[in-house]
Amino acid sequence: MVSHMEIDDTTAGHLQELRRGTVVLACLLSLRVPDYGYALLERLETLGFATDAGTLYPLLRRLEKQGFLSSSWNTDDARPRKFYQTGAAGLALAQTLLADWSAITESIRTLTSGDES
Amino acid sequence: MVSHMEIDDTTAGHLQELRRGTVVLACLLSLRVPDYGYALLERLETLGFATDAGTLYPLLRRLEKQGFLSSSWNTDDARPRKFYQTGAAGLALAQTLLADWSAITESIRTLTSGDES
User: Fold this and answer.
1) CB contact under 8 A, A111 and B20
2) Does the pLDDT of residue B67 top 70, yes or no?
3) Model pTM greater than 0.80?
4) Label partner for A11 (CA 20 to 30 A): which of A20, A34, B50, B117?
């Protein structure tokens, strides 16, 4: 639906704000299987989590620093790549965010539930 | 679930980020029926959209400036109150955000769908 509309900058800003916090959740869920930055970026884009390298890479480093992701270098290929993986704390955070997401969805449903009556 | 857990500052920050964009949507949906700031604040709190006056009031002014809300003074009571109401552009924005919310929810479901298999 969104893609069929002409989106002005203000609307785009509100959409971006709505999505910002969800990229963290998407990273934590995706990286239960280890992956490197660029592959994750492509996966998230396919899933519709619009982000870019300039946002995602610092976010991955931040999540690692916060103890939610761990990383290791894979040197099997000609080009060594840093693989990230969600750790125990990251899984717990993902569960917390998922529970909150469900709660927000329920609240939004309450706000729109009168529409059909 | 969230309320039963001890939430550290880092987790709280991620939760706040997840919820930030949804307050705009909650305001737009709520204010289809005109209301004043403090009553809206209480309504949102009841629904679980944790926000505070210092965040909500500037947000209402910003949404009015952006043309999504209109306002008028109600002077029937001893204390005049500024009532906000969602306008046509605000309703359109709400529909856009709702569609996006559904799309994100679907993407999150895709990321978690392998969990049971």
Assistant:
1) no
2) yes
3) yes
4) B50
